[in-house]
Amino acid sequence: MDDIYLGLASNGERQVLRLRRANRHGLIAGATGTGKTVTLQGIAEQFSMRGVPVFMADVKGDLAGISMAGSPTFKHAASLEQRAKDLGITDYTYTDNPAVFWDLYGDNGHPIRTTISEMGPLLLARLMGLNDTQEGVLNIAFRYADDNGLLLIDLPDLQSVLMACAENASELSGRYGNVSKASVGTIQRQLLSFESQGADRFFGEPAFEINDFIKLDDQGRGMVNVLAAEKLMQSPKLYATFLLWLLSELFEALPEVGDPDKPVLVFFFDEAHLLFEDAPKALMDKVEQVVRLIRSKGVGVYFISQNPIDIPEKIAGQLGNRVQHALRAFTPRDQRAIKAASETFRINKDLDVGTVITELKVGEALVSTLNDDGSPSVVQRTMITPPRSRLGPVTPKERAIIQSISPFDGKYDTAVNRESAAEVLAQKASDAAAAAQQVEEEGEDAQRAAPRRTTSMWEKAGKAAAGAVASSAGAVIAAKITGKKSSASPMNTGLTAVVGTIATSIGGQAFGRFARGIMGGLLR
Q1: CB neighbours of 459 closer than 8 A, spacing ≥ 6?
Q2: What's the rounded Cα separation, in Å, for the pair 7 and 271?
Q3: What is the per-residue pLDDT for 435?
């Protein structure tokens, strides 16, 4: 049970992926229809069986079948069972896996949200295709929000801050650097386009907690987190940026563990070429850094792509575990890919890799993984093990049942809209207009003597906490009545509301860090 059984080589040797080397990343490549998805599914379920949580993007809708057991009535069941017998698998039975469905849009799984601040200007600039000048203005908008205590949670918050920057362009240019109204306008237009793709549902609260990906079920099996990405794939930049954000969040959140006996999490990145297409150098450097360093956090990253040359050399050089399905030599690019794939394997004197790679059958692959001493194994032509779960999609009814027993039912499903930059700036504008009208009608002395139009931060904090606690307590009571689970905590929600409200009122980067530190200490 220390290894992932990949298959049987043509020379009779068992090909395995060693758990203690699984955090050294990997690649699953091959032309369309050669068996990449089936290989991915088989590896993922074996990780789960060994207590390793998994994340994978389901770009075609068929990986969701990992949540259901296979069936002897499946049209290819006989061939799967024969293959298991040929590979010496004596305990082959159809088995389901503990799965949780996620979806950025919330349609086919729990919604995943993050805040504008957590995404940051670099990834947002990549997402919107901004040039250097426009990215600089976006950075100024973030800095302006930090310095003025404006929480950037959702798209309206960023739009409001950009409008404030445009209105105060001359003042901000002297403090932060040139703020061009034309650049602000371009960013605003890109945000509108971004919003029309449904991306506005990705930004908001409750924000996703990355540790929710790292869970075991009551049998000690790793949870398989399946991201429904069929709709997301229609916005390839959002898909790539989202997955890069996930990697960055994992890197920042997880402690250093070196080389554990088995990974903390295995991350399968399908359609990997989308991450690297038209990516600026700054972003490529970030990807390379995260992939290189996240290994020490116990996370294994596996890229899945049709063509191995889709992966940049600096990143491909870090992928120690490789499963290469068949490639076709139809075009000059295909021929370059075959040559590149052949040169990356440790040489097998009995195998002409360049020829064999075009002759592999469906379900066969060239396999090379890391040995116990960290050296790559000699490449072998291998028949890949069959999965035990369903090969194919789940029905809407099956998906609904799996969602109903999810450990996160009720935690992320309802969006929360608390006071942030958009509300604060709107209130300031309203107060300023009311004050100006009072000065015009009653004079400056009357305006100075008037009570505050906006409540103090402590009044806001008390009201926010009371409201949040009441709402959360109501959710818990309702959960007990209806029998549904709720992950809401009245105390935690109240504390979050207090800190968020105070941070909005006082503002500043220093207080933001201080407040987050206090909240983290209170909730531990």
Answers
A1: none
A2: 24
A3: 62
Gap between the Cα atoms of 524 and 521, Å rounded = 5
> CA of 415: how far to CAs of 153, 299, 412, in Å?
12, 30, 7
Cβ(10)–Cβ(353) below 8 Å: no
Decide: 121 and 139 in contact? Cβ < 8 Å.
yes
**For the segment 40-76, what is each residue's pLDDT rounded down to a tens digit?**
999 999 999 999 999 999 998 999 999 999 999 998 8
Look at residue 272 and give its three-state secondary structure.
Answer: coil
Our CA dihedral for 132, 249, 322, 16, rounded to 10 degrees, sits at 180
DSSP 57: E
Nearest partner of 94 among 68, 75, 76, judged by Cα: 68
Q: Cα–Cα distances in Å, from 308 out to 204, 273, 339, 380?
A: 36, 9, 10, 17
Opening angle at CA 292, ends 323 and 240, nearest 5: 75
Interval 270-289: pLDDT, tens: 888 877 877 767 677 778 88
Cα–Cα dist 357/325, whole Å: 7
Instruction: Report residue 118 as tokens.
Output: 């957590």
How much is the pTM?
0.80
pLDDT in tens, 112-135: 999 999 989 988 888 788 888 999
Q: Is 137 helix (H, G, I), strand (E, B) or coil?
A: helix
Q: Quick check: 282 and 136 in contact, CB under 8 A?
A: no
CA distance 403 to 231: 19
